[in-house]
Amino acid sequence: MTLIDPFQRAITYLRLSVTDRCDFRCVYCMSENMTFLPKRDLLTLEELDRLCSAFVGLGVRKLRITGGEPLVRRDIMSFFQAMARHLDSGHLDELTLTTNGSQLHRFADDLYAAGVRRVNVSLDTLDADKFARITRWGKLENVLRGLDAAQRAGLAVKLNVVALKGFNEDEIETLLAFCADRDMDLTFIEVMPMGDMGETDRVGQYWALSDLRRQMAQTMTLTDLPDRTGGPARYFRIEETGQRVGFITPLTHNFCESCNRVRITCTGEIYTCLGQEGKSDLRAPLRSGPTDGPLIEAIHKAIGQKPKGHDFDYSRGQEGGKMSRHMSHTGG
Ligand code: SAM
Ligand code: SF4
Q1: Which among 78, 149, 292, 317 could disulfide-bond with 108, CB atoms 3.0 to 4.6 Å apart, if both were Cys?
Q2: Looking at the predicted structure, is the pLDDT value of residue 85 above 80?
Q3: Homologous superfamily (CATH) for 13-330
């Protein structure tokens, strides 16, 4: 059975936020003083298992664990280990995660043992001082240690870099060389208007990837690639190094027509679009009893309301289409 939304898009990809908490406070993602959800509101690991398993039963083939920082959730490895059964049975093609890398050195081997083969690590700069500034609380050396451990464990690593004006504009070549040396993919992301940032000027931070591409094309030969990995990234190759680079461009090029995903928060809310406020509750149907009937009905209903796309727009010098929730709430 497959989940099909009103625009005939098959939903085969679930992104699950297992916590809204994080050991960093990245300036584009969170304010410094965040109020987190009371722990009692979170779904238990057993409930997360039931929820994901229901989605796998409904045709989801790819599961990405995110947050907040997924690796700060207590006992999260047991959840990964439990999900491995869906890989073993062949019902799931991929189990993966997005992480800030701070705890990766502790968990890389266990992740591999649970069947994870690829991880996305978010890293916007290779300068330790700038890293401390952008994450407020992070230490670059821990993330580098995490990258080493991940590669040693056999995990393929992709770096996610948020392109930020006046912050990492001068580091593009350094980041590319770092990834080429380590044989890691690299994807740049445009900053999205998610949640209130206090002092941070999001529109001022925004760096259109069309501009970044023009900058790169001055010194590199870029060839568009047809590759689609089931996500929103578009890829090109740098002929000089053979490197593949991805661009996620929610602002300059909307990719909603091929959206195949939904997101679930750690409290069991389903968001069928990252850039719309609409959500439905899956926690009540999940807790209504031991059988999955009410849950499955609620999932079908939510998918039946998936909107066509987001309305992010900075063209008027304001955060158009802005979401009230932070990225860490829905899971990036
Ligand atoms: N803590 C993990 C991490 O940082 O990778 C997972 C959650 S984080 C919310 C997921 C991704 O969202 C990260 O790559 C982060 O850079 C990105 N992100 C957060 N806020 C963003 C924003 N306002 N616009 C674009 N990307 C954002
Ligand atoms: Fe934490 Fe990731 Fe948000 Fe940074 S981007 S504050 S690491 S959730």
Answers
A1: 149
A2: yes
A3: Aldolase class I (3.20.20.70)
